[in-house]
Amino acid sequence: MGLRLGGGTPKALRELAGEPLLVHACRRLALAPSVAMIVIAAPPGDVDAVRALVPGAVVVPGGATRQQSVAAALAAVPESIEVVLVHDAARALTPPELVEAVAAAVRSGAAAVVPALPVVDTIKRVDAGEHVLETVDRAPLRVIQTPQGFPRDTLVRAHAEAVDEHTDDAGMVERLGHKVHCVPGSDLALKITRPLDLLIAESLLSAHPLPAS
Ligand SMILES: Nc1ccn([C@@H]2O[C@H](COP(=O)(O)OP(=O)(O)OP(=O)(O)O)[C@@H](O)[C@H]2O)c(=O)n1
Ligand SMILES: C[C@](O)(CO)[C@H](O)COP(=O)(O)O
To answer: Each residue of 44-92: pLDDT tens digit?
Structure first.
């Protein structure tokens, strides 16, 4: 619903440079040679609007949580598709090269692939009163982005066997005991979450337009 971004419109439909985030995201996905089809889990009240925005995509109603939305979209992926990438419309400027790198790593045999960036700030753990308990070693920490890639069967099993809510799909595959492989993430794949992120995205978009087709 884009509550942290504000504005009263489901986030995927909020505009960046005159076009919905969803359209920016799908355009970049479609430019990755590995992407054969796009399935969108849309806000349930906006399914028709989303179909009109991305005519080539399969559109299904999303769920109450991100995990439920992914499960709904996954159920609409044909059996013939062997590699599934799960992406956030909120990461609207994710470059096609990153999409392709994730798909390639899955094809090379990984059970789960995530784009990862190093942590740039000092990280501290705090108690309920906001008192610092410890300063965490940030060297082994990573910020995780999307798209996240999986062999279809692995992702289907992870969703079928999930007993609690996860903030990403790789976390569910991790729970099955599989190794999750990191590929270098991208600053362009930032998740547009707060109003500041929209300003940053505007600036990134003018600095990194897609090549004219
Ligand atoms: N029920 C939901 C909730 C989120 N998402 C998607 O998951 C991605 C990451 O979620 P987030 O950034 O948390 O989006 P919102 O849930 O819209 O944000 P907020 O929590 O601020 O409302 C977004 O592309 C969003 O569209 C989804 O498909 N289904
Ligand atoms: C999937 C994700 O984008 C990876 O960083 C993130 O976990 C989504 O989290 P949100 O709380 O639903 O924004």
So the answer is: 999 999 999 999 999 999 999 999 999 999 999 999 999 999 999 999 9
Residue 131 lies in a domain: yes
Distance from Cα 31 to the centre of ligand 2, integer Å: 23
Kindly state whether residue 3 falls inside one of the protein's structural domains. no
Percentage of the chain lying above the pLDDT 70 cut: 100
Query: What is the ipTM, given to two decimal places?
Result: 0.95
Residues 143-173: pLDDT tens digits? Answer: 999 999 999 999 999 999 998 999 999 999 9
**Ligand 2 pocket member 116 (CB < 6 A):** no
Domain extent for 192:
11-207
Please say whether the beta carbons of 58 and 38 come within 8 A.
yes
Which atom of ligand 2 lies at the shortest distance from residue 66's CA? 12
> How many angstroms is it from 151 CA to the middle of ligand 2?
20
> The domain spanning residue 165 has which CATH number?
3.90.550.10
CB-hemisphere CA count at 13 Å for 147? 30
4 within domain boundaries: no
Q: Determine, yes or no, domain membership for 213.
A: no
Q: Which residue has the tokens 């960046």?
A: 16
Domain count, the chain: 1
Across 110-134, average pLDDT: 98
CB of 24 closer than 6 A to ligand 2? no
| Closest among 8, 7, 17 to 93, alpha carbons compared | 17
